[in-house]
Write a structure and sequence with these properties.
Arc Repressor Mutant, subunit A, TIM Barrel, three-stranded antiparallel beta sheet, single chain, alpha/beta, globular
Length: 399
């Protein structure tokens, strides 16, 4: 198992909240962003004191990190490097939404040049659609033309690892609409594409509109049809389908997100950030004032934490591992279990140990296998393309 460690840093600021967004994000003026950056750097110092390993990935997420002043981002990246041992070949990603990099071409070039100077080597852009009417409906502030311009300038500035996000199953959207979006994104030629079906999350404008009957949620049947058509299109275009929602070419899988799927450690920094370190999952405070107060008192701003049991660890390894197209091997799952505090000394080979731990799940798992939804063999388990459609149901067997 890959035991590399990553860092996730949350920037909760956005120019405007999108109609579908349930993430921890909000608009704030420059003074608040500056105050937050100072608090974040203090948290970085505090977290760095108790960590001695190497960092293989850094992910600046949000929110919209690209709304931050580049001088503040530069200070944050310097603080990360001074407090943690960041590997020379670390993957360092920033979420940089179109239209937040700058209005004028020269401003976009200057910002991207600054990112390169900080060591950022991967861009993840929240495109979501290449149809301007749909972008307006989603509440996005950019246009398809912004996407094309920003992508071209990023290439000009030397970025050779770019992810573009796509949302499908938007109310009112057909499968052919989603495929048109995907084709325009493919034509740009990013190394990585993430595709997600839109979920109506409670508390969002879209959720309220659906409750009021103003919009109609796409049916499960329509959603699954669109998903499989998009998958076929991306595969035909040379993208490796390596995780339920993620596609890469030229070997450019997301190294940071892969940490989540293989039970590696990651340190969560910033408002509401989650982390997983030495078998403990935690989440930071979500109230900005409380977060600021905690770090000012030299306390890590942890709101809640859970120490995983050995079963928690192997259960999560299977749950996240089944998101990967290659699935989860018995050896990887069992190694997670055996490395956990409190693991029982179960005799047998990895397959025997696995099914001893999951003896109560075996009958149901084998039914899914008989239905052609789950492949179970001598190496491990993986979902079929049909099984992906009910992935959460299958994964829940192992929880």
């Amino acid at each position: 198992m890959n035991k590399a460690t990553g860092i996730y840093i949350h920037f909760p600021f956005c120019v405007k909240k999108c109609n579908y967004c349930a993430f921890l994000s909000f608009n704030a003026d420059e003074s608040v962003r500056r105050e937050y950056a100072n608090a974040l750097m203090k948290e970085i110092e505090l977290a760095g004191r108790s960590f001695s390993g190497q960092i293989s990935t850094v992910y600046l997420g949000g929110g919209t990190p690209s709304v931050m002043d580049v001088a503040l981002l530069s200070l944050i990246m310097k603080k990360i490097r001074s407090c943690f041992d960041v590997k020379p070949d670390a993957e360092i990603t920033i979420e940089a939404n179109p239209a937040t990099l700058g209005i004028k071409d020269r401003v976009v070039r200057a910002k991207l040049t600054a990112y390169k100077y900080m060591g950022i080597n991967r861009l993840s852009m929240g495109v979501q659609s290449m149809d301007n009417n749909r972008l307006t409906f989603l509440g996005r502030i950019h246009t398809a033309e912004n996407v094309e311009r920003d992508f071209a300038i990023a290439r000009e500035m030397g970025f050779d690892n770019i992810n573009l996000d796509l949302i499908f199953s938007v109310p009112g959207e057909s499968t052919s609409d989603a495929l048109a979006d995907a084709r325009r994104i493919i034509d740009l030629g990013p190394e990585h594409i993430s595709c997600y079906s839109l979920q109506l999350e409670e508390g969002t404008p879209f959720y309220r509109m659906a409750e009021a009957g103003e919009i109609r949620e796409i049916s499960d049947e329509e959603d699954r049809k669109t998903y499989h058509e998009v998958v076929r299109l991306l595969r035909a275009a040379g993208y490796e389908h390596y995780e339920i929602s993620n596609f890469a070419r030229d070997g450019k899988r997301s190294r940071h997100n892969s940490l989540y799927w293989n039970m590696s450690d990651y340190i969560g920094l910033g408002l509401g950030a989650s982390g997983f370190v030495n078998g403990t999952r935690y989440r930071n405070l979500t109230d900005l004032d409380e977060y600021m107060k905690a770090v000012s008192e030299e306390k890590l701003p942890v709101m809640e934490e859970h120490v995983n049991s050995a079963f928690d660890n192997i259960s999560e390894a299977v749950f996240t591992g089944l998101r990967r197209i290659e699935g989860i091997s018995y050896s990887d799952a069992v190694s997670v279990y055996r490395a956990s505090d409190g693991a029982e000394d179960i005799k047998g080979n990895d397959e025997e140990v696995f099914w001893t731990i999951f003896k109560d799940a075996r009958e149901e798992a084998e039914k899914f296998s008989e239905q052609g939804l789950l492949i179970i063999d001598g190496e491990g388990l993986r979902l079929t393309s049909e099984g992906i459609d009910i992935s959460n149901t299958i994964m829940s067997c192992f929880v």
